[in-house]
Amino acid sequence: MVESGVLATVVLLGLACAAVTAAQPPAAATRPGAAGAGEPTGPAAEVLALERQIEEAVVRGDVAFVDRVTPADFRFVHGDAWTHGGRPFAADDKAAFLERVAEKEYPVHDLDRVQVEMHGDVAITHGRYVSLFVPRNRDPAAAPARLSSIWFERVYARRAGRWLFLSHRTVHGPTVAPAGVDPTAETGK
Fold first, then answer.
1. Closest by alpha carbon to 123, among 164, 77, 78?
2. Model confidence pLDDT, tens digit, residues 115-166
3. Could you tell me which of 133, 66, 143, 73 has the C-alpha nearest to residue 99?
4. I need a surface site. Which of 37, 157, 166, 188 has the fewest CB within 10 A?
5. Could you report the per-residue pLDDT of 83-110, keeping only the tens digit for each?
6. Are 112 and 130 in contact, with CB atoms under 8 Å apart?
7. In the sheet where 108-119 sits, what is the strand order?
8. What pLDDT does residue 51 have?
9. What values do phi and psi take at 168, rounded to 5?
10. What is the DSSP letter of 37?
11. If residue 96 lies in a helix (H) or strand (E), which one and from where to where?
12. Would residue 35 count as lying in a domain?
């Protein structure tokens, strides 16, 4: 049974995340070279829709959906230390990522500022998500839930007529901050 204080903290953090996301202007996804482009269409829209569906599946613990849209060689690199020669916080293969999904470690995963770059049957997305990370079997006193901003790049490919999520790399973060606000979000650093 969850302690009422921990539950209240999770609920308050989730509400704060929703308020921060709602207060920010919407970021339109664009295609390369499309100055002032509005909402994407065709394959770009399909990829962005799949990305939203994946985030929703991660939050609800839908292992079957995530399994269907990731190939056997799927990779998910957590943390940005690799960007300056260090080791990433963690690197999941498909089995490890599906285990995280099954354990519902992420009760909040809100996408923000996502753009897509199309290359035929390959798509690269980049943007930010706000995540509430609550690892299973944690000691709430020693390891509280963390609300963070994560900037990322992801790769998708269309295989046999359907889009698959191949790879995720964190390029900045996680940045743990009050209400999950990444101070670089406003300055574009």
1. 164
2. 999 999 999 999 999 998 887 776 766 667 788 899 999 999 999 999 999 9
3. 66
4. 188
5. 988 888 889 999 999 999 999 988 998 9
6. yes
7. 90-93, 75-78, 162-176, 146-159, 122-133, 108-119
8. 97
9. -130, 135
10. -
11. helix 94-102
12. no
Q: Is the pLDDT of residue 175 over 70?
A: yes
Number of domains in the chain: 1
Residue type, 163: W
Domain contains 33 = no
Q: What is the CATH number of the domain that holds 110?
A: 3.10.450.50
Sign of CA dihedral 125, 118, 47, 22: positive
Beta bridge partners of 112: 128
Average of per-residue pLDDT values in the chain: 80
For the cut 60, the answer to whether the pLDDT of residue 2 exceeds it is no
Residue 29 domain-assigned (yes or no): no
- 20 token code pair: 């921060």
Q: How many CA atoms lie within 13 A of 38 on its CB side?
A: 1
CA angle 73, 107, 96 (to 5 degrees): 25
Contacts of 34 (CB under 8 A, 6+ apart): none
Whole-model pTM?
0.74
